[in-house]
Amino acid sequence: MTSFPRRYHITTFGCQMNKADSERMAGILEDIGFQWSENPNEADLILYNTCTIRDNAEQKVYSYLGRQAKRKHQQPDLTLVVAGCVAQQEGESLLRRVPEVDLVMGPQHANRLGDLLDQVFDGNQLVATEPIHIVEDITKPRRDSSISAWVNIIYGCNERCTYCVVPNVRGLEQSRTPEAIRAEMEELGRQGYKEITLLGQNIDAYGRDLPGVTESGRHQHTLTDLLYYVSNIPGIERLRFATSHPRYFTERLI
To answer: Which CATH number fits domain 7-128: 3.90.1640.10, 1.10.3720.10, 1.10.357.140, 3.40.50.12160?
Structure first.
């Protein structure tokens, strides 16, 4: 890692997935030497994790960016990062609108933040919105709570609901393996966490993209199977999950 600023601030808009992504990106930043700044105007790196579902949230991002872009003219070493769904949707056009931004990165690239910043600190302006296989969630998030934690189990969505932009900005479904999910939850139990919320844009579609079928012909890995698999982790007293789609809410799950 080349030389870099030492203080960062993240502003998060939108859903639980964005909150979980922000915690992971904060963990990456602290792992490479940054320290949290409560005041964005005192930070050397500012990251906006954006939401495109609500127009109000999208407009707020541009308002905040405008203020920090002006600041960057007086403080050229300030690093501006736009992540999340607005970044994925706008891509290069966001740089044309706010050329002071250093890095535009879609949700699939959250776990690559450190590598992308390496390139930014070498003097490059980057747009990372191409579809990729999501790097396994091996980060150590800077979690906002010491009791309740988010755990991603599936990314993206294959549905094409006419009112929803999620498949376009979050990509196709990618399920984590049951073993990786349980390992993360076991570590949370050892750390004293009591409640875990399993996350996915279309969570009860979990496992459709994983290999294997049962003798009866159904997918070997489903949300129901996963819930059984992680239901006995020491220390974890409550499991929640969000967000489900009625098409895949089966009797087995009930």
So the answer is: 3.40.50.12160
Show Cβ contacts of residue 114 under 8 Å, excluding neighbours closer than 6 positions: 1, 28, 31, 32
Beta-strand ranges (E) seen in 51-160 are 79-84, 103-105, 126-128, 148-152, 154-155
Query: Distance of CA 80 to CAs 94, 134, 205, Å?
Result: 12, 23, 35
**pLDDT 10s digits, 66-113:** 999 999 999 999 999 999 999 999 999 999 999 999 999 999 999 999
Residues 139 and 117 sit within 8 Å (Cβ to Cβ): no
Residues 6/42, Cβ–Cβ less than 8 Å: no
- Listing DSSP states for 152-205 in one string gives E-EE------TT--HHHHH-S-EEPPHHHHHHHHHHHHHTT--EEEEE-TTGGG
Q: Which of 229, 158, 167, 220 is nearest to 198 (CA)?
A: 229
Q: Which residues contact 71 (CB under 8 A, 6 or more apart)?
A: 41, 78
Q: E strands of 31-178, at which residues?
A: 35-36, 45-50, 79-84, 103-105, 126-128, 148-152, 154-155, 174-175
Sign of CA dihedral 230, 231, 234, 236: positive
| 243 preceded by a cis bond (ω within 30 of 0) | yes
pTM, whole model, 2 decimals?
0.89
